[in-house]
User: Fold this.
Amino acid sequence: MELSKHNIVSKIEGTEDYYIVNLLSGNADILSAQKAEEIFSGNFSDIDEYIEKGYIVEQAAEKKIYNEKYLDFIESRDTDEVQIFFVPWYACNFDCSYCYQSGYHNKFTVPSTELIDSFFAYVLKKFAHRKKYITIFGGEPLLPGETYRNTITYILSRAKEANLEVAIVTNGFLLSEYIDILKDNPIREVQVTLDGVNATHDSRRYLQGGGQTFESICKGIDQALTSNVTINLRMVVDKENIKALVDLANYAINKGWTKSPFFKTQLGRNYELHYCQTGNERLFSRLEFYTALFHEVNEHPEILEFHKPAFSISKFLFENGELPSPLFDSCTGCKTEWAFDYTGNIYACTATVGKPGEALGTFYPEVTLNDDMVMDWEDRDVTAIAACKECSLQLACGGGCAAVAQNRNGSIQSPDCRPVKELIGMGIKLYSTHEE
Ligand code: SF4
Ligand code: SF4
Assistant:
């Protein structure tokens, strides 16, 4: 018998204790420093308990369980809902300081109804037997003027006809002007971004040619919530505005947003995915981001009323009292996520949509698909990436993001390592301190 290669053992942040997590056996424990030393040295005082919990295993038996869980994972993913992004234009009325799309050709034109019909025809055929929903993405989908309004209305009517829910990713500036259209359609959620309160937000997310946006976005959020349209409020966080997280949290709490059943939140991290961003030194690495977040939440626990960060598997563990299923793959591209744009191109996901050389095929004017490229995406998981196969973190990490891996290593079949050990160590400390 030997130690399981899926044990994750590391220190709990700010304590002398350690944790052990094994996603294959589904067990987790807090270990004293002495017990952790037993694991590191291989001299156990109570080997039976370790065997019972799957921390010590017969290799062949563990491999069998691994294969079974892998098949379960693939099977359940095949029935998961597919998120289908549609970009009607890349044009935008904002000029955000960090926009990764600002190097794209942002033509202010709208797609023809023929192209939109082709998109729906493709989606309804290709994903005929899958649960699915559409996400309208940009650029900025909610632009001023009848032409844009009519196009969005047409897309929503086609979705309604096909019985598909729609999510919209918007900067929120004109949300209040679109509420009348949205509340009459099956809108799953509207994702809106605020990067802080008042001047902090306005210094990062301003109109083309300048102009404040905070007040107008808040008005749209208020109207959406009173119209029972779900808002997913996203804050894009970097070193420049991390201190504004508590201000935004308090603002949302005071507005009563956090009490609404139609309000949820997410935190986004800017990263160097597309091309050299202005002011790269303000970007957080994933570990820096979570470390900064850990300190902010400890200092201002009210942030948790606004947003509960995942810290790898920690949030799930504390909320559910059990570990999540093993994550053999953390990248949804070409599996449960696809992206389509107004040029008629098909892409794997939002990280690649619109990027030259990344199209996998076309849905308009004719249907084409590069099967080899699609298969490369579909095959990517921790059993396919050489570096992941022997990695003890694989079932918590899932191999990371294919687009980041491609950017960094030149191949999607390469790892995008996540600082899983540190994240779990911080998350256990955070949620054991602040959650009753
Ligand atoms: S490539 Fe990255 S952004 Fe795209 S689906 Fe995979 S993990 Fe998500
Ligand atoms: S991406 Fe890195 S950390 Fe994640 S499973 Fe692969 S080798 Fe391990």
Notes: The first strand starts at residue 2 and ends at 3. The mean pLDDT is 94. The CA atoms of residues 183 and 227 lie 7 Å apart. The radius of gyration is 23 Å.
